[in-house]
Amino acid sequence: MLESEQIKHWISAEVPCSHLAVEGDGHHFSAVIVSEVFAGLGRVKRQQLINGILKPHFDSGLLHALSMQTITPEEWKING
User: What domains does the chain contain, in order, with CATH numbers?
Assistant: First the structure.
């Protein structure tokens, strides 16, 4: 069964995060990803970036579903 820590590793290996939290039940996961790389990107582009990183795991069926909040450090300070 897939663990939250594995998803955190996949994301953090590609995106420098100031905060990264992943929770789930082994099949469905949710993530809060705070990174400066999201600056200047809209919500869809941010999620496409993360989905691109995780695509091999979605394609293999290992990762089934991930809902995510993708925010900048500035947004995190305001809304975190």
Answer: 4-79 (3.30.300.90)
